[in-house]
Write a structure and sequence with these properties.
The structure is a single chain. This protein is an alpha/beta fold. It has three domains: 2-200, Cation efflux protein transmembrane domain (Alpha-lytic protease prodomain-like), CATH 1.20.1510.10; 206-281, Alpha-Beta Plaits; 286-384, Dinitrogenase iron-molybdenum cofactor biosynthesis domain (Nucleotidyltransferase, domain 5, 2-Layer Sandwich). 60% of the residues lie in helices and 15% in strands. The strands form two sheets. The protein has a five-stranded mixed β-sheet, with helices on both faces. Helix 1 (2-28) runs antiparallel to helix 4 and helix 2 (32-59) runs antiparallel to helix 3. The structure holds zinc ion (ZN). Zinc ion binds next to helix 2 and helix 5.
């Protein structure tokens, strides 16, 4: 890790020296391309500074007046830097186009060529160095930085190419290279701006939201996941989860569900805060009635079938109770079967203590009815609720 930090520092120092050298040489030789290349190096330094600021801000814990953390400060910095980059690259672009239109012939200066060539060599060396340290320290961000240095090398090399063309009389080459480089910088500035605006506007990280929703939907006792939104920077994310549990689910189980949701922080290092909101529902949408093959009410878990009534669609169907004579874990298996069929209530005449607890932990409400007449009244009553 230390080696990765050292590589980052060396890269920043090299870029600072290159920016100054290219800026001076570019102004002296009135080469718009070299000035543009200097600006490119400056943007890279600003980019590194933003990453550093971001890490510092992410370390600052939430306080009373900023309970959601301070991560948007990074986006505000990005917004400022992004605007500076866009305006500067646009002004270089305009200058290069003007030079082209005016037919301004830059003079060929050997020192400017030497500076651009040195910049290309140093950037290639930086690229190789950062990629090799990145592979060694398993730092994907350093490898990405190394690849970026390779594009910096190409940028400086195109300035060199422009100089050579100018030397052979193609005076427009310098301005054309400057235009190409400023478009590249404009693109970088645009990306920084977009990133900042997305965070400031609380744009949802859809991919992570979907992944988290899937995990939460698999937690036992949750009736429905109503709202999942992940927002924040790529480094600091806030997750808000709203879910519904049946009124049968006990306080202890609700606490366990919340513990498991908050435990997602351990699996996703970028998540800094999880806000769970629980809603308790007494609504019954699907009832299971233990019946025999002729649809007669049986009233306990020894029934061969369950008649399932969906109150919303008013449809009903029969499922087989494949665990009717299970020797072990009968209550658990049946609770699982009913839960899979999205049943929220079961009507019985009698039920054992164990099965009762299993059904409750799945959020299934237990209703009692002695006979068919009672059963019909009960369903009519549930429907009217
Ligand atoms: Zn660059």
């Amino acid at each position: 890790m230390d080696e990765a930090i050292k590589a980052g520092k060396i890269s920043v120092i090299a870029n600072v020296i290159l920016t100054i050298a290219k800026g001076f040489a570019g102004i002296l030789a009135s080469s718009t391309a070299l000035i543009a290349d200097a600006l490119h190096s400056l943007v890279d330094i600003l980019g590194s500074a933003l990453v550093w600021i971001g890490i510092k801000i992410a370390q600052k814990p939430p306080d009373e007046s900023h309970p959601y953390g301070h991560f948007k400060a990074e986006s505000l910095a990005e917004l400022g830097v992004g605007l500076i980059i866009v305006f500067t690259s646009l002004s270089i672009l305009v200058e290069a186009v003007n030079n082209l239109i005016a037919g301004l012939k830059p003079s060929f200066e050997l020192y400017a060529l030497a500076v651009a060539l040195t910049s290309a060599v140093i950037n290639e060396a930086l690229a190789r160095y950062k990629i090799s340290v990145g592979i060694k320290t398993k730092s994907s961000s350093l490898i990405a930085e190394g690849k970026h240095s390779r594009t910096d090398m190409i940028s400086s090399l195109s300035v060199v190419l422009g100089f050579i063309l100018v030397y052979f009389g193609y005076w427009w080459a310098d301005a054309v290279v400057a235009i190409a480089i400023s478009i590249l910088i404009l693109q970088m500035g645009g990306e920084i701006l977009k990133n900042a605006i997305d965070v400031l506007m609380d744009k949802v990280d859809e991919e992570l939201s979907v992944r988290i929703r899937r995990i939460i939907e698999g937690i036992e006792g949750i009736k429905s996941v109503d709202f999942v939104a992940v927002r924040g920077t790529w480094r600091s994310k806030i997750v808000e989860v709203h879910f519904t549990v049946s009124s049968e689910v006990g306080v202890e189980q609700i606490n366990e569900i919340i513990r498991r949701i908050e435990g997602l922080k351990d699996s996703f290092s970028e998540i800094v805060r999880i806000i769970p909101v629980v809603k308790i529902s007494e609504e019954i949408r699907r009832i299971a009635i233990p019946v025999d093959e002729n649809d007669n009410y049986v009233g306990d878990l020894n029934a061969r079938f369950f008649k399932i009534i969906d109150l919303k669609s008013e449809k009903s169907w029969k499922i087989q109770n494949e665990f009717w004579n299970a020797q072990k874990m009968k209550g658990y298996l049946i609770a699982e079967l009913l839960s899979k069929n999205k049943v929220d209530a079961i009507v019985v005449r009698r039920i054992g203590e164990g099965a009762k607890n299993h059904l409750k932990s799945k959020g299934i409400i237990i209703k009692f009815a002695e006979d068919i007449e009672n059963l019909e009244n009960l369903i009519a009553q549930i429907k009217s609720e």
